[in-house]
Design brief:
single chain, 217 residues, alpha+beta, Arc Repressor Mutant, subunit A, SH3 type barrels, six-stranded antiparallel beta sheet, two-stranded antiparallel sheet, 8 helices, 8 strands, 19% strand, globular
Length: 217
């Protein structure tokens, strides 16, 4: 359910069995079997060869798990000095064993953060999700200026690459040139502490993992 909600939330198209299988690193038959069970419980809606959707009850359950996951990631970075490429797998394990009381204590300790280290919004305790307008960097037109607000956290190698080239949450970015035939785009990126922007050529794989909030949004 968490994966279904996450795929829906990122707005990359309809949620399919194939997409879920790739995300979970399991077979499509395994996903189909689980969807049948979740459907019997009234948590998902899925017709054969159609897209997958959460019911209202399923979305509520997914948000509860997402809150746990994203607060745990935030705590691991803030309190235990994990890097942003390490926390996803740790949180995947911990989210199933901690209590609601423990999660609420983490939230209070951290000052009730609204986003995790990757810029993903953290659901509130009453199941609301507060998001700001954003677009994929890969889809931004030339000349667009904005702030990097979110990064896909599912690929640790990509997160390490972005850290190496010093591209991260909160940085200002301007799309200088789209280079579709080269499979990349040229950007100017600047951290708050930097006086000048740095020119970077960014592959589309990386650009498709970054969301920006355009200036004026």
């Amino acid at each position: 359910m968490k994966v279904i909600y996450d795929l829906q939330e990122r707005g990359t198209g309809p949620v399919t069995i194939t997409g879920m299988a790739e995300r979970l690193s399991v077979s499509t038959s395994s996903v189909s079997g689980m969807l049948r069970k979740l459907g019997d419980l009234g948590l998902v809606e899925h017709r054969r060869y159609g897209s997958v959707r959460l019911t209202e009850q399923g979305a509520k359950a997914a948000l509860s798990v997402l809150r746990r996951h994203r607060l745990l990631e935030t705590y691991l970075v803030a309190a235990l000095e994990y890097s942003w490429d390490e926390v996803h797998d740790e949180a995947e394990i911990l989210e199933h064993v901690v209590s609601d009381k423990f999660v609420d204590r983490i939230a209070a300790y951290l000052g009730d953060p609204v986003v995790d280290p990757h810029g993903d919004p953290i659901p509130t305790s009453d199941g609301r999700m507060v998001e700001r307008p954003s677009v994929l960097l890969s889809e931004a037109e030339e000349g667009v200026v904005g702030t990097i607000v979110r990064v896909n956290d599912t690929d640790p190698d990509l997160l390490r690459y972005l850290a190496d080239v010093e591209i991260g949450i909160g940085m200002s970015v301007r799309v200088v040139e789209r280079q579709p035939f080269a499979g990349s785009l040229r950007i100017a990126v600047r951290a708050e502490r930097e006086e000048r922007a740095r020119d970077r050529s960014l592959g589309l794989v990386a650009a498709e993992a970054l969301w920006i909030s355009p200036d004026g949004s």
